[in-house]
Structure formats: C-alpha cells, structure tokens
Amino acid sequence: MKWNSSFAIGIEAIDNQHKKIFEHLLAIENSVAKRDPWHILHFFLAQLAEYMKFHLAVEEALLEVIRYPNRAEHCDSHQRLIDQMAELEDQLKNQASGGNLVGFFESWFIRHVLSGDRDYAAYIKEEFPTLLGKRAA
Ligand SMILES: [Fe+2]
Ligand SMILES: [Fe+2]
Q1: What distance in angstroms lies between residue 16's CA and the mean position of ligand 1's atoms?
Q2: How far apart are CA 66 and CA 69, in angstroms?
Q3: What is the rounded distance in angstroms from the CA atom of residue 52 to the CA atom of residue 59?
Q4: Which residues surround ligand 2, an ion (CB under 5 A)?
Q5: 18 CA distance to ligand 1 middle (Å)
Q6: Are 78 and 92 in contact (CB under 8 A)?
C-alpha cells in the first residue's frame, strides 16, 4: 500500500518518516509477490526494522521533550509495533506466501498513525504551535 494524504498528521517531518515507512512496506509487499528468495526478503525486512526503530525513537524523544501526558502509553504501543514487526518476519520466514501478513502489519501501523500519532500531533498544535515551523509574521 502507498502512503496517502489521509494518513497525514500535519507535522511535516513526521509525515515524511511515515511515507518512508510505507515505501519500505511496499518493497516488502513486492518482494513477497515476486516470491523473492528469503535472503532478499530478509534484507527488505531488516531495512524496515531499522527505519522503524529510528522513527519510533524520534517520536519518543519528541514526546519526552514536550512532556506529552500520554507518552508512556504511546511508547507501549511502539513496543507492540516492534513486537509485531518481529512476528511478521518470523511468519514470513515460515510461509511460502505472506501478502496478507504484510497487509495485517500495515493496518496495525496505519491504526497507530491515525490514533496515537494524531493525538500527540493535536497536543503539539494546541500547546506548541511554534514547533510546527509556522513562523509568526
Ligand atoms: Fe509514527
Ligand atoms: Fe507513534
């Protein structure tokens, strides 16, 4: 699946990272569809995992800096995403075809972006509008 503007949370740097995650997911989907050998699929999965961990660390640092009230809960759901990503890799390793598995992971990720990430974005817009890069005239 490709990123589309309905997934935007309105913070450009974060939206760009989410787009990049969708690019990694698309590479995995294509690799599964082409029935690439495991070492190739594994390479794409490793790239997703690396980028995802970077993205989650950026968000967690941001939430820490702004003292976001729900940050513990948000970080817990990041941990669940990491666990699900590891599970996806395990399942793809053991199955000949895994297109739906990638789709499941994507829907988890989209749900996180549309609920958890949108919530902190709303908090930032409310409490720290200058963080969004909109300069005062
Ligand atoms: Fe995110
Ligand atoms: Fe998040």
Answers
A1: 10
A2: 9
A3: 11
A4: 59, 117
A5: 6
A6: no
Structure tokens at 126: 């409310």
Q: Would you say 22 and 52 are in contact if contact means Cβ atoms under 8 Å apart? A: no
pLDDT above 70: residue 137: no
The first and second tokens of residue 112, run together, are 């996180």
Angle at 109 between CA 58 and CA 117, to 5 degrees: 50
pLDDT digits (tens, 9 = 90+) for 65-118: 999 999 999 999 999 999 999 999 999 998 766 668 899 999 999 999 999 999
In 34-129, alpha helices (H): 38-65, 71-94, 99-112, 118-127
CATH code linked to domain 12-132: 1.20.120.50
- Nearest CA to 112 out of 89, 68, 81 is that of 81
Domain ranges of the chain: 12-132
CA of 124 to the centre of ligand 1 (A): 14
As a whole number of Å, the end-to-end CA separation of the chain is 39
